[in-house]
Amino acid sequence: MSKTYFITTYGCQLNVHESEKLAGVLKQRGFLPATKLEDADVIVFNTCAIREGAEDRVFGNVGALKKLKRAHKEKIIAVCGCMTQQKAKAEKLYEMFPFIDIIFGTSNLYKFEEFLDKKTKRLLAYDEDFNLLGEDMPFYRTSGENAWVNIMQGCNNFCTYCIVPYVRGRERSRASADILKEVEKAVKDGYKLITLLGQNVNSYGKDCGEISFAELLTKVSEIEGDFKIAFMTSHPKDLTSDVIDVVANNPKLLKEIHLPVQSGSNRILERMNRKYTVEKYLGIIDEIKAKIPNVRITTDIIVGFPGETEEDFEKTCDLVRRVGYDGIFAFMYSVREGTVAEKMDGQVPENIKNIRVNKILNLEKEIKGKLKNGNN
Ligand code: SAH
Ligand code: SF4
Ligand code: F3S
Description:
Layout: E1 4-9, H1 13-28, E2 32-33, E3 42-47, H2 52-63, H3 66-71, E4 76-81, H4 87-96, E5 102-104, H5 112-117, E6 123-125, E7 146-150, E8 152-153, H6 164-168, E9 172-173, H7 176-188, E10 193-197, H8 213-221, E11 228-232, H9 241-249, E12 256-258, H10 266-271, H11 278-291, E13 296-303, H12 310-323, E14 327-332, H13 350-375
Parallel strand pairs: 1-2, 1-3, 3-4, 4-5, 5-6, 7-10, 10-11, 12-13, 13-14
Antiparallel strand pairs: 8-9
Helix pairs in contact: 8-9, 9-11, 12-13
Bound molecules: S-adenosyl-L-homocysteine (SAH), iron/sulfur cluster and FE3-S4 cluster.
Iron/sulfur cluster binds near residues 199, 200 and 235.
């Protein structure tokens, strides 16, 4: 009987796509997906570090495997991803849970196969070199009609609240020729939606003299076949008119833009190191709406960033009303070790963050209700 695997993914689309790569390695070795975690011979947790909650879930879920591993010593338990790219967290997991066999970070993803073969008892692989990121790894797509296609890795922006630049390294774009080849294959294989992925897709090419993101979108759209193109994520400081024009004029592009604003207060945006103002952001929104009729605009918002007053928060509510988003991902600020905001004064109490996040979600519902009624 074939051996099986089960992968739990905690993070963003990038993380999901990396789980597809881990699955690709396992499939290539003859493993099949298990329907239940308990049944699998190889159990993988692909973790996320973006907020404390995501990390707490990993501790809880891995901890729960103690009995299973005691009863089935032959099972392999691996923990990888952004959380274990932080040395202290990787070491803590290693010490807390002696039944974990393999721990490795995002920079070591491409070594997964080698780790599976290791005969040593336990393995903790920590590495800060992000040069090799598994571009050539096989993958097993698991997202229905959608094919995730990575176009770049890392982030240079260092928003003061965010762990990503620390666990993903600096921006590195893939060669456009490789991206186009991958899309061609995905389209041939029947995928109907190609989603181009990167932490900051508008910076595509800037690190290596490649074509611009707008040019990349156009080239991808020229691939023959019946498919649509989406992308994420755009940073407002880098979203340029040429990209908006491609989305507006190219029939292959989905008429959707995810443009995280984070806050509606210039004071907070500055403390977040976002490098744009509310006025600049609204200017981009107006341009998008003017050029793309019926566009779907979504955003991310953080409430309770250090120093956020009631007045700052009200400004975020005003911005939400002004834009009239089609979807909002609202988060309570979560302190991340090693970031600049960790040391900032004015940390906001949890109960206030809770009230604010609920207000944003209610506002979103209200807006959606109005939009619906308006259309009737
Ligand atoms: N690269 C993307 C998104 C990265 S993370 C971008 O810049 O837009 C996705 C979202 O998680 C962010 O947009 C932000 O809203 C949220 N986030 C990041 N760090 C956070 C933190 N420390 N606490 C709460 N939310 C956070
Ligand atoms: Fe994090 Fe900012 Fe980079 Fe997005 S742009 S990944 S929020 S540092
Ligand atoms: Fe989480 Fe890493 Fe993505 S921290 S949001 S899985 S890049």
